[in-house]
TrEMBL record:
Family that this chain belongs to: Belongs to the NlpA lipoprotein family.
InterPro entries: Lipoprotein_NlpA
Gene Ontology terms: cellular component: membrane
Transmembrane segments: 12-30
Species of the source: Acinetobacter equi
Keyword Ion transport assigned: no
Taxonomic lineage: Bacteria, Pseudomonadati, Pseudomonadota, Gammaproteobacteria, Moraxellales
Protein name as catalogued: Methionine transporter
Subcellular location: Membrane
Amino acid sequence: MATTQKQSKNKFIIFGIIIIAVIVGLIIWSQQKNSVSNELVIGLSPPFAKQIQVAAEEAKKQGINVKIVEFSDWNTPNITLNHGDIDANYFQHQPFLNNAIKETDFKLKPLGIGAGTHVGLYSKKFKSLDEIPNGARVVIPNDPVNQGRALLLLEQSKLIGLKDSNNHLSNLSDVVSNPKNLNFVEVEGPQTARAVDDADLVFSYPMYLRLAKTIDPNDALALDQTNNTRYAILFVVRDDYEEKHPEKAEQLKKFIHIFQTSDKVKAQLNDEIGEKLWFKGWN
């Protein structure tokens, strides 16, 4: 009888321990789940990683946790965002976003604005645009928006003429004058930076050039000097993000404010892009 009571008591103790372990496990799981759910996940292209990381370190001091996910192309960030797998992305300007929505019917919108960069024409073979020979190979982006931006800069540099100088979505079919018979080579935007080693002239972006280490971004033969906020990079979210995730949306807005106002972020932009090669997209 005593043995039976002892066994019952042991079973009760073991059962109690199991219950406590389960409760503790649930508490830990719940805390981890909340921690993950409160984490802002921002997708971006590699050139934007350091500036966002600096802002993330500043935000952490205010209790805002940010996780960065890098994408090597310009399509996946919007696909992933539209699926709801990340909170926001930071890699595109408004014309690019407009075109992406037009082509895919994604439900995306900008929540805030970041920094913009000037773009340039670069060459390792020639010291000036006057030296560009007849039949030169000229590399430009293959996406409609950035190709338009490249062609506008080429026109401003007197190398080509366009059907409409005010059309920021001009493409190669809109070239009406090409006195040097330039041969255009279309590549994905991020690859323009690496094309500098082979082509005669390349349209590219300071951040990608600095990342690729192919040429000093300050050594442009021609530079777009317009501080056009149309080309400032955006913090983009799903259309329903604020409705479905109001608390995280507020956190993201605070993070964007930190990005815009942090002296450390400004210093990082000066360091990685060049003080004269970037501009504020916000007021």
